[in-house]
TrEMBL record:
GO terms for molecular function: siderophore uptake transmembrane transporter activity. Pfam families: CarbopepD_reg_2, Plug, TonB_dep_Rec_b-barrel. Keywords: Cell outer membrane, Membrane, Receptor, Signal, TonB box, Transmembrane, Transmembrane beta strand, Transport. This is TonB-dependent Receptor Plug Domain. InterPro entries: Beta-barrel_TonB, Beta-barrel_TonB_sf, CarboxyPept-like_regulatory, Plug_dom, Plug_dom_sf, TonB-dep_rcpt-like. Residues 162-239 form the TonB-dependent receptor plug domain. It comes from the Bacteria. Belongs to the TonB-dependent receptor family. It is a multi-pass membrane protein. It comes from Flavobacterium terrigena. Residues 305-769 form the TonB-dependent receptor-like beta-barrel domain. GO terms for cellular component: cell outer membrane. It is found in: Cell outer membrane. One of its GO terms (biological process) is siderophore transmembrane transport.
Amino acid sequence: MFRNICTKFASNQKQITMKKVNFLILLFSLFITSAFSQEKVTLSGIVKDQKSNETLIGVTISFENSTTTRTSLTNEYGFYSISLPKGEYTVQINSLSYAGFSETITLDSNTKKDFILTEKNNEIEQVVVTGNSKKLQIDKPEMSVNKLTIAQIKAMPAILGEVDVIKSILTLPGVTNAGEGQSGFNVRGGAADQNLILLDEATIYNSSHLFGFFSVFNADAIKDLKLYKGGIPARFGGRVASVLDIYQKEGNSKKFGMTGGIGLISSRLLAEGPIVKDKGSFLVAGRSSYAHLFLKLADNNNSAYFYDLNTKINYKLNENNNLFVSGYFGRDVFSLNKQFVNTYGNSVLNLRWNHLFNDKLFSNASFIYSDYYYGLTLDFIGFNWESGIKNYNFKYDFKHYISDNFKLFYGANAIYYDFNPGRIEPIDSDSGINEKQLAKKHAFEPAFYIDAEQKLTDKLSVNYGLRYSMFYRLGEETVNIYANNQPVTYDADLGIYEKATPIDTRHYGKNETIANFDNWEPRVAVAYTIDENQSVKASYNRMSQYLHLISNTQSPTPLDVWTPSDNFLKPQILDQFAVGYFKNIKNGDYTLEVESFYKTVKNRLDYIDGADLIANEAIEQVLLSGKTRAYGLEVMVKKNVGKLSGWISYTLSRSEQKTEGRTPIETGINNGDWYKTGWDKTHNIYITGSYKLNKKWSFGSIFTYQTGQPVTFPTAQYQYQGINVPVYGNRNEDNLPAYHRIDVSATLNPTKNKGRKWQGEWVFSVYNLYGRKNAASINFRQNQDTGLNEAVKLSIFGIVPSVTYNFKF
């Protein structure tokens, strides 16, 4: 099917073949190479972990002699390349969890050299930040980007005995969640569905287990993550809020080992080892919760649990070629007495080929499959419901290290989507439910990009790029036709929006184009170095999102349905501007980051009052299109060295939507005025600290404060047949009470670990130490005794203590 679509795409003269694009860009690159590389030699190679042979991402390598200092950064596969004048250099490498490295080398010709780094200590899960490994890269044209190594994440408090990737990024400025017990996260006033979440380049559509209490990412299997809030490189597309780029470990190619943990609620186990020593390795990690088993002991038939599996295989064919196969499978099951059973989860698979054309040109080709399934069984009604989204993605990326001052990145990708809006089938023949499949939807999204990073002067660096994205909404499907092409009508007498009645239908054949869009997406970021310790930066992003999440909640739920852009649902278009000031204090012992941003998004959907979203075959009949804006100030102060380390992040922001009437007589939503989105948080404060008392004990703590979630409260009431009926005010004009809590953890690492193959530790933690009853929601009901309306606060979690035993051998 994918091949047929691509063939049709070419026959309509709307495709530029990847071969032609690569050929033209390579010619340009070779020209640039000849212009920039005279009288220089190239040093390239891989940076690896000494014990496992794992490649290391984002390691800064400095080259210094009497006349110059240059730096290079390893890419997602540990590869670096730098062009330098001939001569003798001192090479220095500083990394968070690795011992400092220094070596003198002489360069008189192109050279390949791998660097092997040694961990600072062998004690499980103990991380001490030393040296200047966390200095800000003042001169790099990269802003609105936060990087966290797994070592940093594991140094944070372990909640329920397990560190969590998603909870770690919530401590960063500009990042919030919708509320306690809700999944997903929000970035700079964007919705959760506007985040692109990648695990080894494969799309993850729901990042949470147990409705947000755990993330789908097993920290034992994760190597590195990077969150782009702005200044997003042109290689990324398809979302308009952020990109969370996560890479799994590759596995130990030197020796077999296991890592795991046993806790009160969940346990996990990871095994890794060589396939062929120093050439290939495997990694398998499993995790499961089992708290529901204790309910069964008490004759309670309710349950809520999850399980997941991470896998990865890599093999080095030769010096220039590597193959990787990685996968993830996860499921959540929530059951109420087996009458209500909810099952959902992600499945992804990625086959990758790394190829090194020469010491300056690195490429990566990926074939990716992603599947998100969500199902529901309602036994008391007698039907099963299932829906989901699948995508098949091919991407080919090139990184061209043309010179010390000029790097070029370019590539293409093509995604084919299968959408299942919903299928209903009866549990048995007596249920009275008829089997029904909502019309499946299909789409094709190709894109090309080119991105350049250039150092113009000693003080001025720039990153600029362009992405060209296209989107084709494809048949087979029968589409409604409406009068004036308006699927929603407005009743001026009642002042309400209603579903329009179709006047006709049109059938589109298989792979026939129903609607198509294309967008140019420019990106630029500039860094100006004031001195060696401080700089100012600015960036601009335009991005397009062709998928929409149909949901009536503030965070993703299993019943949400993804749908593609079409004749009625237009793509979301983002424009974001950001400026920032960055400073290293005391040679990087402390760092300061201050950023301000402003962004707008066109064609953001909202819903008419009383919208029915589940199993709706004509979803366009309950949707209105508006626009959003978000702006704010972010401040982050970090202490990077010493026994006590951590950071304080503060965000002051506003996120608003405006959905105006389509004609002068229409009111729109909230009379066409700006109103708060469901994820607006005026104030957001995180204080994160880690303290290493001695070799045995270390402690961690996180304090959280957020403005309460926007909600709609009643403003009046009237009586109808003896019943008090509330009258609600404008949408999202109220807020829940402020949210705050403290989480703490203590880690005991026995001294007998030293020198032993088996190493263990105990992690004690308390979630919500002072038992704050934070409001997840406030509902209004009529008191059965008094007959009066009353507000009832729902709080999900109080104090939650836990203990976990972690081990490694």
